[in-house]
Design goal:
single chain, alpha/beta, 5 strands, about 50% helix, about 10% strand
Length: about 300
């Protein structure tokens, strides 16, 4: 009688299939338990926080959840236990795509493109060669040449170069006149003073604006027309001897200056310029003369 023996073992690959199937069953049971645990934790959090408390997600959390959940159908999303509604997840995904599209389509340089250098140079040249032109006149000339540019662009070009876009930049102020004509400008005025014995004296003085040199023409208690006229004659001779080529003499409208005085200066090619009414800044610098004249 033959003793029975166990059947021979199967091939090796048969055991591997059995092992893989066992691992898959274990993993499915483990994943199911993990899902149940996570759902229960979410239920506990909702019960503790209440329905009025909203869970706030950081931008990174929103992007992560949107990337994971958007591929699922909406019916599946509604069956999931989420802290937010499915519509909220879809809105996160739309915002994420919108920002991504805006980032990829953003221009390399914001704002309008810069003005061509040749057009900028031409606009500045027109302004410097024609000081009375405003930015609209310059824009018209550029348009005539076939250059398409906005008037506001011309205004910006002038502003960046420190030029006044308005035609008023060509007007000459009183300070500009003094600086440009300083070498040929004289100013005269009477300085009233009182001596130690109480006598009132009038000092006629002339100042050169370029060198600030002061010429005292004389002093008198009674500045008559003849006295002032003789003082002007002496001034003309002194200027000729010194080689001073004065072209303008600035004075106020004081009645002590006779009309004959202006005629004497005109014969010497010196034009009399009267100061404005109630404009003390146009008068002779008394402070500078007081620092030089003796008491």
């Amino acid at each position: 009688m033959m003793i029975g023996r166990a059947p021979p073992p199967g091939p090796p690959h048969h055991h591997q299939h059995i092992r893989r199937a066992a691992i898959a069953v274990y993993e499915r049971s483990g994943q199911g338990r993990e899902i149940l645990i996570l759902r229960h934790q979410i239920t506990v959090l909702e019960r503790q926080l209440g329905t009025e408390t909203r869970v706030r997600f950081a931008p990174k959390d929103r992007a992560f959840l949107a990337a994971l959940l958007t591929s699922l159908p909406r019916e599946v999303l509604r069956r999931l236990r989420l802290l937010v509604r499915p519509d909220t997840v879809l809105r996160w995904h739309r915002d994420l795509m919108r920002r991504r599209h805006a980032r990829t389509c953003r221009p390399k340089r914001r704002g309008r493109p810069p003005t061509v250098g040749s057009i900028r140079t031409l606009a500045l040249r027109l302004v410097r060669e024609n000081p009375t032109w405003g930015y609209r006149r310059v824009h018209g000339e550029l348009t005539t040449l076939g250059i398409e540019i906005a008037p506001s662009t011309v205004w910006e070009i002038l502003k960046q170069e420190g030029l006044d876009p308005a035609p008023e930049r060509a007007s000459t102020s009183w300070a500009d006149f003094l600086r440009s004509q300083a070498d040929a400008l004289l100013a005269c005025d009477f300085i009233e003073t009182i001596t130690f014995n109480g006598q009132r004296q009038y000092i006629l003085a002339v100042i050169e604006h370029s060198t600030r040199r002061i010429r005292v023409l004389g002093t008198t208690a009674h500045p008559s027309a003849n006295w002032v006229t003789q003082a002007m004659k002496n001034l003309v001779m002194d200027l000729n001897d010194a080689g001073c080529r004065a072209r303008f003499l600035l004075r106020d409208r004081d009645g002590k200056f006779p009309a004959l005085m202006d005629e004497i200066l005109a014969e010497a090619d010196v034009q009399t310029v009267l100061t404005g009414i109630r404009m003390p800044r146009m008068k002779l610098d008394h402070g500078a003369m007081g620092a030089v004249l003796p008491p």
